[in-house]
Specification:
- By secondary structure, this protein is of the alpha/beta class.
- It has two domains: 193 residues, 2-enoyl-CoA Hydratase, Chain A, domain 1 (Alpha-Beta Complex); 48 residues, Orthogonal Bundle (Lyase 2-enoyl-coa Hydratase, Chain  A, domain 2), CATH 1.10.12.10.
- Helix content is 47%, strand content 16%.
- A six-stranded mixed beta sheet has the order 1-2-3-5-7-10, with helices on both faces.
- Strand 2, helix 1 and strand 3 form a beta-alpha-beta unit.
- The structure holds hexanoyl-coenzyme A.
- Hexanoyl-coenzyme A binds next to helix 2, strand 6 and helix 5.
Length: 255
């Protein structure tokens, strides 16, 4: 298997891409396995937060160039790779990318599908598609623009140059930079801390940030207000506020 599903501790799953011989290039097997894994994790009530990672020297080197080199447009249509990105794009629980080494092309796009990116100090991000005669095809032009703004996005997309973890953090592409050997532990610790929080509220926050960001502000604010009001139907709201008043730790059940 090129995609391994491991336990990340209490209520946390760890998805590991494991195709070392091709620097974790995302061929159809990897993409299909990733898609299946995220479909499974979405409906697994025991899992509240997920970490996706690669290997020590590479998160993922992008789409598999060898599998695309001779393709025609119709082949690309029939491959319908958007079907495999769908379960990651629509994953309803928090997803944290733990990035060591290279996150290039589709690998950078995979990281940008996550809600947070924890990067090792030596991590490198790039959208090098331009250098092999194509453009990003899994949201790179759009998610990068929204993450870092036009002027940084243009440079990354038009030059294909690598961006260090520190530069990526400064421009808002990563959440935190930590020493290389602490990346996975930090991502898992963050995931476990989120897994302790009320899952319905967690899910709504993710939905609002992702959906609301592309709506007119007034519409997004209405959506937020309705979601806020809905939280008062949850047992976790009653528990959270009661625990505060009683000066004890809350016990969230997900209801
Ligand atoms: C296919 C790849 C690959 C890739 C590496 N390999 N990246 N195979 N597709 N994206 C293979 C190499 O061909 C080589 O195979 C083996 O992995 C080791 O790679 P090396 O280059 O020798 O390793 P290294 O010197 O450590 O360099 C690592 C690297 C470099 C910096 C990650 O491999 C690299 O630049 N890769 C390409 C990155 C890229 O351009 N990505 C964008 C792809 S387009 P052999 O058989 O020689 O051992 C894209 C479009 C997205 O992502 C569209 C939507 C998904």
């Amino acid at each position: 298997m090129e995609v391994l599903l491991e336990s990340g501790g209490e209520c946390v799953a760890l998805v590991r891409i494991n195709r070392p011989e091709a620097r974790n290039a995302l061929n159809s097997a990897v993409r299909e396995q990733l898609a299946r894994t995220f479909v499974e994790l979405a409906s697994n009530d025991d899992i509240r937060c997920v970490v996706v990672t690669g290997m020590e020297k590479v998160f993922a080197a992008g789409a598999d160039i060898k599998a695309m080199a001779d393709a025609q447009p119709i082949d690309m249509i029939l491959r319908a790779s958007e079907r495999n990105w769908g379960p990651i794009k629509d994953f309803p629980k928090p997803l944290i990318a733990a990035v060591n080494g290279f996150a290039l092309g589709g690998g950078c796009e995979l990281a940008m599908h996550a809600d947070m990116i924890i990067a090792g100090a030596s991590a490198k991000f790039a959208q090098p598609e331009i250098r092999v005669g194509i453009i990003p095809g899994a949201g790179g032009t759009q998610r990068l623009l929204r993450a870092v703004g036009k002027f940084k996005a243009m440079k990354i997309l038009l030059t294909g140059e690598m961006v260090s973890a520190q530069e990526a953090e400064a421009m808002g592409l990563v959440t935190e930079v930590v020493p290389d050997d602490e990346v996975l532990d930090r991502a898992l610790a963050l995931a476990r801390s989120i897994a302790l929080l009320p899952p319905l509220a967690v899910r709504k926050i993710k939905e609002l940030v992702l959906q609301g960001g592309d709506l007119p502000l007034e519409a997004a604010l209405v959506m937020e207000r309705h979601a806020f009001q809905l939280m008062f139907a949850t047992a976790d709201q009653k528990e959270g506020m009661q625990a505060f008043i009683e000066k004890r730790s809350p016990n969230f059940t997900g209801l």
